[in-house]
Every structure is written in structure tokens, then in C-alpha cells.
Amino acid sequence: MDAVACTEAFADPFTDAERDAVYRAIFERRDIRAQFLDRPVPDAVLARLLRAAHHAPSVGFMQPWDFIVVRDRGVRQAIHAAFTRANAEAAVRFEGERQTTYRSLKLEGILEAPLGICVTCDRSRNGPVVLGRTHQADMDLYSAVCAVQNLWLAGRAEGIGMGWVSIVSRADLREALGIPQEIEIIAYLCAGFVSGFPARPDLERKGWLPRLALKDVVRVDGWQGREGDALHRLLGQRFFPSPLEGEGEDGW
Amino acid sequence: MDAVACTEAFADPFTDAERDAVYRAIFERRDIRAQFLDRPVPDAVLARLLRAAHHAPSVGFMQPWDFIVVRDRGVRQAIHAAFTRANAEAAVRFEGERQTTYRSLKLEGILEAPLGICVTCDRSRNGPVVLGRTHQADMDLYSAVCAVQNLWLAGRAEGIGMGWVSIVSRADLREALGIPQEIEIIAYLCAGFVSGFPARPDLERKGWLPRLALKDVVRVDGWQGREGDALHRLLGQRFFPSPLEGEGEDGW
To answer: What CATH number has the domain bearing residue B145?
Structure first.
């Protein structure tokens, strides 16, 4: 660490309360498509969310993102129509009871939420050779996804629910928002204040899929490494120091 | 919102202190490749980080990720050797003074950090048709990227610095970690307790690229929408309500 960095570094540790607040945002963040309140999002709040997104990591400090805030109802109606078309195509890809369940799910809140936020990626920003993207070409796309997650977590902290609406063709989003061909579309989110954040994800609660056990998705020192490790024994326990309590066995 | 959700929802707003802690994590998170302390990461801390990652959003609640914790020094040496090869290839893609600067940058901490964490994506988990992935095929990859950002932010809250090492070929990572061909590699992160988090990103501080002005990456109601909007006037101001003070004009 050089001298400049030493004099300009955040060295104070987070307090336990600060740490727990970060975990609270992470564990209480939900993909929200309902529960929106009829309450506008003040520009000052929106500006904080966008600033949080803009402070995501980016490969080579490329900051490849743009954020299109969508308030206009006509634009949102066009996107909602595109969702409806895509969702009809999607439903028939599931069979029998699964399709019945699929059709019962609420999968977007484009018109109920007062805001949409489209996150894009300009792959040619700052020239063709990007530090850190030379061997993993998708790092710019992944940077923009990190901005989405920042938005989502900041939203939880502000009481703003967000839902990533992915059942829509990107061509339709491009047309509705006038996005140039060379700009990649990463996400369209619906966003607004909500009455609450469900304790469990909708798809878990409705029995679509269970939450995987944490120990089953953690490996040690290589793909095959699982058994007999102290970490795995800890991950397999129902409880270890955490700001959230009361989750069931599958909650890990 | 149905009755079940109403009885099982987080409705309490974040306090201002909790909200500020979330923003603190977001604004003080850094891509860390140095400043690592010679201090092991306890399993309980690592378990919290992994749990935070596992609570990322995922398309169709697919949870496509696995997390390979890498402690073994031999494995990390193999990955470091792969970085060294890739970095030599990368350097010559920059010209003149830019190449000199590139060569002066510290772009990984694979061996200094006590841990590596590789995040992968199993694209066929839970079958071929995934709710929410029918029209945007990369949603599973993007879900795993959200898990990376959760790791990063939880790391900041725990005093653990992380760096995304992208200057390495995924084929080399696959070989070093024994990852099957059908599993997508998303990220390799070096991680460990650090002495501090630089106030600004390394690449900004070293003059590689400046931070873009927030107002220049925000659009309203469509790609062309920028001027004359109250939000833009607010974003263009040097200061608005925020937990962080003292940033310069470009800090927005």
C-alpha cells in the first residue's frame, strides 16, 4: 500500500450494528412485483439509488452502464404489452400442473410500480481494449449486473421494492426505450415504495422450488472438495452467528 | 399481497443509521489486490459471507451458483501462474505510456490473500426450462454475478477486502479447480482481512480513467431523455443528501 493510499483509506471497521444492517438488506431484499404503494419516489431518493448503482465495481473502471429512469406511463404500457406477449409464450413451455402454477404467479409490476429503471451496458465505452476484459470478454456486462444488485440493496434500505422483469424480449425493450443497437440491455426493473418485503421469495413460498442448503453449494479447494471439512460442518448446522434468526433448515 | 405474505413480511423500515450502513458498504467497497493482513478468515465469518452470496436474487429461484473456497496454496499458485501468463499477453495490448502504466498496476492478490473464492454457474440446474430465462437466456449468469456483489459488500462489512481477478483464462481456472466443462465460471476473487479500503478506486487514483459524472449516465423515459428534467438538475449538483461527504465533483 503506497503512501497516498495510506492517507486516503477507510480503515475504521464496521460496527456490529452497521454490519448487521448490511446483512439485513441482503437477506430482506426481494424480487418485488406487487405490494407497491401509491406514493411517488422523491428525486432525492432516486438520486441516492442511482448513485449507489454508479458506485458498483467495473472492469478497468469502465463504468459501462447507463440508467434509464422510466416514469412515463405510455412507455411503461408499451413495455407491459411486451411482457404480456412474452409471458404467453413462456407459459406454454411448462407442462401440466407446472403451467397452471406458472400462470398463477405475478411476474411483473410494470404498471403498478411508479418507476421503471433500465440498466444498459455500452461495451465500447473508453475504447476497444479494456483493462481486465482482455481474457474474460463478458466482464463489462457483469459490471453492469453488479450495478443492478447495488440498486436492489439500496432500494431495500430505502423501503423501495424492485423486481427484475426478464420475461420480455430485449428487442421490445430496445424499441420502447429507443436504445441504440450497439448498447446491450442488461435489466429492466420495476421500482417503488412497498408495504413490506415478503419474508421468503415468492417462488419459494409458492412451492416452485425450495432454497438449496448452503452446504450443498460450497466446495473447498476444487470442484470435488466437500466432505470432512470444518467449514462444511459449520455450514450444515442450522444456526451460526447471524443477524437473521428464525429461518428453517432450508433457509441456509 | 395475499394473506400469507402479509403475515410473513418484513415491514419495518430501515433506520437512518441502517440505511447509511448499507450505503457505507456500497461506497467503501473496493476491488482489493493489496493491503491484505496476515490473519486467517475464521470459518464463522466465511460462512456469513457465503450465506450472503447464497441469498442473492436468482432467476426462477434457480440458485445456479456454486462457491469454491480456495485455501490450498498449491492451487492458488497454479492460478497465480495462469494470471502471470494472461497478464503478459494483456500488457502488450496497450501502447506506449499506457502500457507502462498498465505494467505498474497491481492487478491481483492471489497469493497475498489467504483465500480465493470461485463463483460458478450451473446453467442446467433444475432442468432446461427456467422461469424468467425464457426470453433472456443469460439471466442465470447474471444471477451468479449478483451473488458476487453480495459477497463483495458483505466482505466490506466484515473488514474483508476482495478483488475480482479477471486477467486469467477461464480454461486455466477450470483446470486448476477441476471444474466440469458444463459449468460456467463467473468469477475468481481473492479475499482476506485488509488494513484499509482506499478512499478511491486504484484505477481512478492512478489516473487510468476518471469517474464519470452521475448525471451523464442517467436518462429519463428513453435513451434520448436527459435535459431539463428536475432529476438531472439534482444529479448535476455537487451534493445531495448522502451518507458520504467530501467527494469531489467527479465523485458523483
So the answer is: 3.40.109.10
Residue numbers of the domain that contains B145 = 30-209
Residue B24 within a domain: no
- If one counts the domains in chain A, the total is 2
Tell me whether residues A150 and B24 touch, CB distance under 8 A.
no
- DSSP H helical ranges for chain A: 3-7, 16-28, 43-54, 73-91, 96-104, 139-158, 170-177, 202-205, 230-236
The model's pLDDT over A113-145, given as tens digits with 9 standing for 90+, comes to 999 999 999 999 988 899 999 999 999 999 999
B140 and B133 in contact (C-beta within 8 Å)? Answer: yes
Q: A56-77: buried (b, 16+ CB within 10 Å) or exposed (e) per residue?
A: bbbbbbbbbbbbbbbbeeebbe
How many CB atoms are located within 10 Å of the residue A182 CB?
Answer: 8
**What is the rounded distance in angstroms from the CA atom of residue A157 to the CA atom of residue A28?**
9
Which candidate from A57, A102, A179 shows the least CB-CB separation from B152? A57
A184 and A92, same domain (yes or no): yes
Contact B157 A14 (CB under 8 A): yes
Q: Which three cell numbers stand for residue B139?
A: 439471466
- The residue in chain A having the minimum alpha-carbon distance to the alpha carbon of residue B108 is A132
Q: Are residues B164 and B249 in the same domain?
A: no
Instruction: Confirm if B50 and A218 have CB atoms less than 8 A apart.
Output: yes
**Exposed / middle / buried, residue B16 (Cβ in 10 Å: 0-12, 13-18, 19+):** exposed
pTM value is 0.94
Mean local confidence (pLDDT), B78-105:
97
Give B238's pLDDT tier (boundaries 50, 70, 90): low
Count of alpha carbons within 13 angstroms of residue A133, beta-carbon side? 22
Question: How far is it, in rounded angstroms, from Cα B252 to Cα B235?
Answer: 8
Cβ neighbours of B211 in A, within 8 Å: 61, 63
Q: Could you tell me which chain B residue has the CA closest to the CA of A10? A: B197
